[in-house]
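ARCHIVE CARD
CATEGORY: sequence design from structure
SOURCE FIELD: tokenized fold
FIELD CONTENT:
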């Protein structure tokens, strides 16, 4: 009884879970992976819970990412063994050209009698912002270089005048000795 109450509590606190038959599938995306940019990696924790028994059962685990329209854009299928419960971490690299929007990471298990259970969790893809720090460094470097060049060009006549004054002072000093 404690196990069922605990399971219901977890389901209510986490994500969308559709239970059919003896299994529950809970998909959770860590907060640090809930808002991503194109090309980033999406990571999800998948928890499979066998409510119907304690014997080990091989199930087919299908994971996918679907776009706002519902079509699958990334998909992976594998066979996994579950006794009472199993935890997995699965991920995909998002395409670099993925459009901003709300996407879903879904997991579905199909077990030996043909029944299945699914779970899903949504995440956001936002526009990739340009790294403006690099632009500021480049622009700052160019401005600094231009300033140095201007100072050198402007200081050339001043340096020439200083050389002439030094030469004149040298000549005057020599004549004063005579």
């Amino acid at each position: 009884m404690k196990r069922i109450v605990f399971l219901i509590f977890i389901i209510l606190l986490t994500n969308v879970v559709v239970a059919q038959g003896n299994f529950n599938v809970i998909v959770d995306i860590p907060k640090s992976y809930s808002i991503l940019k194109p090309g980033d990696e999406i990571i999800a924790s998948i928890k499979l819970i066998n409510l119907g028994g304690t014997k080990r059962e091989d199930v087919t685990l299908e994971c996918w990412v679907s776009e706002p329209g519902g079509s699958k854009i990334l998909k992976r299928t594998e066979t996994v063994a579950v006794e009472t419960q199993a935890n997995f971490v699965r991920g995909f690299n998002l395409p670099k050209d993925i459009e901003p929007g709300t996407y879903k990471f879904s997991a579905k298990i199909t077990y030996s009698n043909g029944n299945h259970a699914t779970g899903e969790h949504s995440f956001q893809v936002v526009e990739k912002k340009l790294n403006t720090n690099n632009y500021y460094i480049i622009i700052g470097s160019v401005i600094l270089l231009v300033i140095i060049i201007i100072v050198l060009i402007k200081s050339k006549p001043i340096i020439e005048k200083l050389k002439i004054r030094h030469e004149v002072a040298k000549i005057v000093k020599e004549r004063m000795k005579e």
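CARD ANNOTATION: The first helix runs from residue 2 to 13. The chain has two domains: 2-125, 130-178.
SHELF: design records, drawer C
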